Amino acid sequence: MRRLGLRNPLDAPLPTPPDALRKGPLREGAFRSRLHEPRTAVVLGRWLAGAILVCFVTGLISHLLQQPPTWLRDHLPSRPAQGYRVTQGLHVISGIAAIPLLGAKLWTVYPKLFAWPPARTLRHGLERLGIALLVGAMLLELFTGLLNTLQWYPWPFPFRQTHFWLAWIAVGGLLVHVAAKGPEIAEHWRRSKPPLPGRRALLGSVAAAVGAVTVVTAGQTVPWLRSLDLLSPRRPDVGPQGLPVNRTAAQAGTLRTPADWRLRVDGPRPYTLTMDELLALPQTDVDLPIACVEGWSASARWGGVRIRDLLDRAGAAPGALIRVTSLEQSGPYAVMTMPHTYARDPLTLLALRVDGHVLDPDHGYPARIIAPNRPGVLQTKWVSRLEVL
Ligand code: HEM
């Protein structure tokens, strides 16, 4: 196009708006700090990108464990047993750390948002639209995530799907942004001039803010930080039988277990078992955490019957998918499907006890699922039926 003397339409200049509109922050020299400059933007951008990358990858892991596509479902690993506790703990820790980092990055670059003229060319205008999408998606993503850790949903849209798609928009926008700023990022990647006065203090304050929010919230995941856990919404050792509860038996309508409760196992050789019959089967104890999507996790010693023993008795094929149904009448997790990798794991139990005691109704009395490397919402409580699909 250039050889023919034609200009790419994206680079055609756009008309400049009248100067009379150039007021307030749009005025020349409206921002005085010398730290609104590219080297500071690159240093903070690198830190922010690190936090966002960890948050994105661990978020995808959580999404895939909860809602795997069919081709992946039978390959979900049940080990490491503590895996989900680590990845989801990191997800919430990096998401919270990204909040001060995003604030500092935006402070550094926000005078650019008032650049004049607002769009020099169509390409420049499109880049700025991309920036608007990136900033909007990042702010909303971190805001919805933070409110989710408080179990507060003041919006009409479904949290999980919105958070998932916003993550893709934000990360896509970030890739476009980094590509568009590529030459500038490369130029300022290494320090080439003596540091600007005040930059070290700014970066030090941002690092201190990130350290502070991490230390006062990470105790919900990291046991040795528990004594500093001042701001996290949950204490992993508070709740009936020393474990937190998200959905209580009262909320689920399962406070009173039917007097004729039996575990029903449907498969090639269906059968039912009373509680006494379940207790007469070989019992296993396992140490596993309840690891919640909100980032907290708590370990306990669970006792009960191995799911694979119950399935073998029903004649289930080793690769069979299992459906677990709760006594809960409604609620998004009243029915759960369990791939064979979990169902066959010797650590996966139909738990009847926790730390040597009969389960509290809030922990799923009469029986609940406990499996390794599984989000808490899939550790179905108040189990009434197992089905071989
Ligand atoms: C959540 C992630 C990010 C957000 C929301 C964000 C936001 C912004 C915004 C709003 C601007 C001003 C745009 C304009 O020029 O009109 C900007 C500029 C810039 N960003 Fe980012 N950014 C992010 C990540 C990054 C990363 C990862 C890097 C590099 C490692 C980076 C490097 C830069 C640079 C070099 C500039 C130009 C600064 C200047 O010319 O003074 N950004 N960013």
TrEMBL record:
One GO molecular-function entry: oxidoreductase activity
This protein's UniProt keywords: Membrane, Transmembrane, Transmembrane helix
Keyword Transmembrane applies: yes
GO cellular component: membrane
Residue ranges constituting the Oxidoreductase molybdopterin-binding domain according to the UniProt record: 257-388
Start and end residues of each stretch annotated as Disordered: 1-25
GO term, biological process aspect, one: respiratory electron transport chain
Superkingdom of origin organism: Bacteria
SUPFAM superfamilies in alphabetical order: Oxidoreductase molybdopterin-binding domain (SSF56524), Transmembrane di-heme cytochromes (SSF81342)
InterPro entries (alphabetical): Di-haem_cyt_TM, Mopterin_OxRdtase_euk, OxRdtase_Mopterin-bd_dom, OxRdtase_Mopterin-bd_sf
One Pfam short name: Oxidored_molyb
Transmembrane stretches, start-end: 41-66, 86-108, 129-150, 162-180, 201-225
Record-linked PANTHER family: BLL0505 PROTEIN, PROTEIN-METHIONINE-SULFOXIDE REDUCTASE
UniProt name for this protein: Molybdopterin-binding protein
Biological source species: Streptacidiphilus pinicola
